[in-house]
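User: I've been trying to design a sequence by hand for this structure and keep getting stuck. Would you show me what you'd pick, starting by listing the structure so we're on the same page?

Assistant: Good idea, let's start from the same input. This is the structure you sent:
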């Protein structure tokens, strides 16, 4: 085998990266909220909001990593046990243990994503394309 190159140039790397081009006035935001209620009482919540993904700060990136890279363990009642090592490879998980009867337990995850791309979709004729596709799918 020949020698492996030590590094790829930034120029070459720029042509192969995936992701979003947030230029030309495109603004996208992302938020995630996780909440657990037991009998109507909030017992756990996590919330991260990133108002502009293209200009995410290091603090916002850390908050997002913490919210999506952890396992949240909630125990209700006596004699609940769990080995946290069981979830070593899990991310963004909520584990609820309950040893009591007649409990109202609700786990909610809300993801909000917005983009100011309405004008872009209009220029692409998205509505017309979708309508043509739907009509075409009916068959003749």
């Amino acid at each position: 085998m020949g020698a492996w190159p030590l590094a790829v140039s930034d120029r070459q790397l720029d042509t192969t990266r995936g992701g979003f081009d947030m230029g030309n006035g495109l603004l996208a935001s992302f938020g995630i909220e996780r909440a657990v209620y037991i009998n109507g009482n909030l017992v756990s919540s996590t919330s991260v909001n990133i108002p502009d993904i293209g200009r995410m700060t290091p603090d916002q990136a850390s908050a997002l990593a913490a919210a999506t890279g952890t396992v949240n363990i909630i125990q209700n009642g006596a004699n609940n046990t769990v080995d946290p090592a069981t979830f070593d490879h899990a991310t963004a998980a909520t584990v609820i243990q309950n040893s009591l009867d007649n409990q109202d337990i609700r786990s909610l995850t809300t993801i909000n994503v917005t983009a100011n791309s309405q004008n872009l979709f209009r220029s692409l004729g998205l509505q017309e394309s979708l309508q043509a596709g739907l009509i075409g799918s009916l068959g003749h």
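That's my pick for every position. To get oriented when you compare it with your attempt: Helices lie at 10-16, 58-68, 118-124, 126-137. The chain has one domain: 27-137.
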